[in-house]
Structure formats: structure tokens, C-alpha cells
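Hi V.,

You were right to ask for the full record rather than a summary. Here it is.
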Amino acid sequence: MVKQKNSHSPIGNTPNPVQSIPANEMKATGSGYTWLLWQMWGTLLVIGSGCVGYYATNMLLKIPTLPECQKTYWPLASASTRLYCAQLKAENNTLPSIQEAFELVKELPSNHPLKEELKESKELWAKKIVALGEKKFHQGDLKAALEMVSKVPNGNSLYKFIPEKIQKWESTWLEGEEIYRRVESEINKANWKEAFIIAVELTEIENNYWSQTKYEEIIENLTQARLESKQLDGLYYIFRKGGIDNLLKTIEKSQKISKESYAYKEAQDLIGEAKNKILQYIDSLIETKNWDTLLTISGKISSSDLVFQQEVADWQIIANAGKSAKLRTDSSLDLAISEAEKIEVTSPIYSTAQDFIRYWELEKEGLQILSKARDLATPGTIKDYLAAISEAESIASGNPVYPEAQADVRNWYNRISIIEDTPILNRAKTLARGGNIPSYQRAISQASLIGRNRALYRESQKLIRQWQWSIQKIEDQPILNEAIALGNSQNYPAAIRKANEIRRGRALHNEAQGKITIWQREIDARQYLQEARQIAAVKNPESLLRAIRVARKVHPSTDVRSQSVNAINKWSYEILAIARNVFTYNNKEELERAIKIAKLIPYGTSAYQEATGEIRNWKDELYRLNTPAWPPLESIDSTDSTPLPSQSGI
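Predicted structure:
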């Protein structure tokens, strides 16, 4: 059973010492009892004083028990508790915890005893918000940074600086984005040097995200883009080489460039260009009906990793159909048409296939008509040819067989004209056999009946020209014969005048002109020889040399050629004779003059070799005269110590 506490005892359940002494003992002792009572009270006093001191000391040294913030009922919480818990919240250094701290002290009045401490705490919390915003800003999360600093409460000393901070961050961010955009633009243009120069500008931005993270990222992108660009350069080289194999290789390698690559768009453009080249080539093969090549190319494309699968199947269908159609029989054309009809309406070459179907249908119809016309023409009579022509001309101009049919029609008309005109030409040939001017003229009149558009027209015109030529020969031969006779009698001027009567374009004109050339050459030769003789009559070395030069103009084929050669040799010896006459021993001036005259003798003349020998001798003599003589040995004084001149001084 729990004992009840004594409400008057300062120490709770401590028993009363007086009650523990028996009453008979108290009475028996008397004065002893009094001393014991005082001793007991003294002991209690000492014990009580010690307890009070211990309690007081413990209260002074012991940290007071803190309130539990999570369990606090805030409507009844004291200001100190709110401030304390708000400070604890803010120490978490997160935006929500700092916001909660501001919220806890929001209700405290401005004149509260803790206002100074509250003001300092709010300033500290605001700085923490700004610091968190700065951290986000430098980490690259501008939106989060702006959102954070916008949470700084109005009335805080930092609040007025927030717009400026926001403006600075936004301008810095825009600057970074602009530089980054410029770098990417230059990378896309493959301007590597310019891109690197611009990228360095990022390092000057006052933001770690742009100056470090994005700078390193763009440098890495730039390096990768350069490598990819080199790869694309190789692909462009292959592309420019042309040929279906190179185009397929270009597409295959370009498809391996990822979407994240700077070169992706350029690679896709290159793929598009290569595909267009292939399609253009395929179109040209279809247009020129080069079916064998189309089948070969289709096989190459179908084995490659391209998006041409449906097109390849259709190309092979149209190529096989075209090969069948080339046989140009009813069955082969029917097979070609049925093959081409397999191409679906969604195919890119559907309209082309339909055009070929219509083309082959018309071709089949035209070939049937043309075959019938050729059968009609087989007997080879005029009536048969006319029937064949009538049948073939029923083929419309839009039919593929039309040009072939027209060629046959022209051939049959020519055959008809040959049948009709051969008797005319044979009669003209018979008339020309007379071999005189009237017979040739009658033959020409007969052959002229064959019109320009007739098959034998060219042959008739050739014969007409031959007969006209024969008439001109008959007319002009007497003139040429007379001119030749005059020329043989050396009456060259008269011969030339006579031969010039044969006009240009006549049969004997060229022959007459040849004779005129020969005769004019004879006239010129005589004039040259006469002129040379007149010049040589002066008899000095210079005139003789001029005479030789003029005489050498005489053509070798002329009658006076031998005379001119004799005169040239004679005049060369005359020059040599003059030189010899001038030569005088021991006279340097005359020797030099003789040498100069002898040198005038031209090479190829009879006196040239002799003149060369004389010139050599005269030069030796001239050298002797120019060399000082040695004194005789007996005239040299033996006492004279002057040395003899050395040989090199001679």
C-alpha cells in the first residue's frame, strides 16, 4: 500500500524523527531528550542546506530542456519557441525549410522583445535564399534560381536588390546562350577556327555553368564535329566520283551518322542528293529503255540497306516487261502489258507504267497493220506498192510504229519511182553515146525529166554533170591546144592570154591554169636573168654579188635555168679574180680588202671553195705582218741582261 505524502514536509515522504522515539523513553530521559532533539534538528538542517545547494548548483549548470518543435501547438506557442524552432528549420538550408522559418515568425509583432534577434535571423535567412539561388544559377538552373530569389520576403533589406540580381542573371544567361548559339552556327558551317575563338568567350562569363560546363561541352562537340566533318568530306569525295556503287556507298555510310551529331542534317542532305542521283539515273534508264542495265542496278540496290525496296520491285517489273516488249511480237507485247499492270497505283512509277502499257498497246496495233502492208508489197509491182502504202498510211502519227511505217512508205515510193524513171535514164544514156555536143545536150534534156524527189534523181544529176563536162571539153580543147602551141614556141605572153579565155568553172580551167603557171615562170626566169646580167655589167664585187642573188630567183624547172647557173658561177670567179688582184704582199690594207671581197662569194657557187682557201692563206699572211719580228741572235749583246720576251707575249 502506497503511503500518502505529508504536505508540510519539504522533502516529500521523509518520516518524522520525533514520531520514531517511544514516549516512555522521552519521559525517562528528561534533559537527555532535549539534547537529542537539538542534535536531530541540526542534522536535518545540514542535510537540508546541502540539498538546497546541490539543487541550486544543478539548476545553474544544467542546460534547460528544449521544447519539441514537431509536437508544439503553434497557436499557443511562445515567441521564443517560434523563433527557436524557426532557426532550427532554417539550418536545413533548403528553400522550403527557410520558407517555413519565415512562416513561423510571421505572426510576431514588430515591438516584441526579441525583435533584434528576429531581425538578424530574417536577414540571415534571406541571405541563405540568395545563396541557394546563386548555387542554382551556377549549376545551370536559371529558372530555379529566379524562383528562389523571388521568395525573399518584402521588407527584408535584400529585397530591394533582388530585381537587379535577377536582371544580371538573365543578361548573363542570354549572353551565354547567344555565344553558344554562335558557336553552334559556326560548327554547322564547318568554320572550326571561328567556332573555337567564339567558344573561348564563354570562359569570360561570370557563371560556372557557361564558363565551365557548357564551355567544355561545346569544345567536346566541336572536336566531335570536326571528326564527323572529315568523315563527311570522305563521303562527299565518294559521292562526287559518281557511279551507282559510289552513290550506294555514300547512302550506306551516311545513314550511320546519329541524330545527335552536328553532321546529321548534312548527312541527311547528302543521302537525299545521292538518292536523287540514283532516281535520276533510274529514270534515264527507263526513258532510254535500257532494261538490262536497269535489272542489274535494281539487283545492287535491293541488296543494300535502303528505303528503295518497293521501288526496286517495281523497277524489276517494268524492266522485265520492257525486255519482253523488245521482241515486238503479239505474245511478247501481251506479256509486257500484263507484267506492267502489276504495278500498284501507289507506286512512284505507276504513271510511267501506264504510259508504257498504252505505248505497247499502240505498238502492237501498229505492228499488225505494218505487217499486213509489207505482205502486200512483197510481189513488187507498182500496184502492190500502192496498196502497201495505203495500208501503212492508216497508222496514226501518234503510234510508236509510225516512223517505221513512214520509212517503209518512202521506200515503196522510191521503188515506184525507180520503176517509172529507169526507162528515162536508160534512154538518156543511149543518147549520150553519140559523143558529140548535140548528143550530150539531148541526153541532158532527157535526164532532166527526172524530178528532184525521185529515187534516181541523184544518179541523173551525176550523169548530167558528166555530160556537161564533156561538152565543155569539146568546146574549150581547141583554145587550150592553141595556147599550148604558143607556149611551145616560147611565145609565153600570147599563150597566157589565150589560156585565160577558158573561164573559171569550166572543165579545162584547172588544166589551163596549170599551163599558165609554167609559162609565167618562164617569163619571170628570163626577166631575172636579164636583170642579173645588167647588174653584173658594172663589174664590181658588190654588183656581181647582187647579180648572183637575182639570178638565183630563176626557177629550176625553167628553160633558162642552166644559163643562170653558168652566169652565177662565172660571176663568182669574177669576184675571186678582183680579190686576187687586190691582194698585195706586205700590205695589210690590201690584204684586208682582198679578204673582205673574197668573203662576198656565196656558198654553193663554183668559186666558193677556192675563195675559202685564198681567204685562209691571206689571213695567215696578215697574221705574219701583225706579229713583231725576232731580232737575229748575233745582234744580241752578250752583256745585255735583258731577258728575251716569253712566247706568251708574242
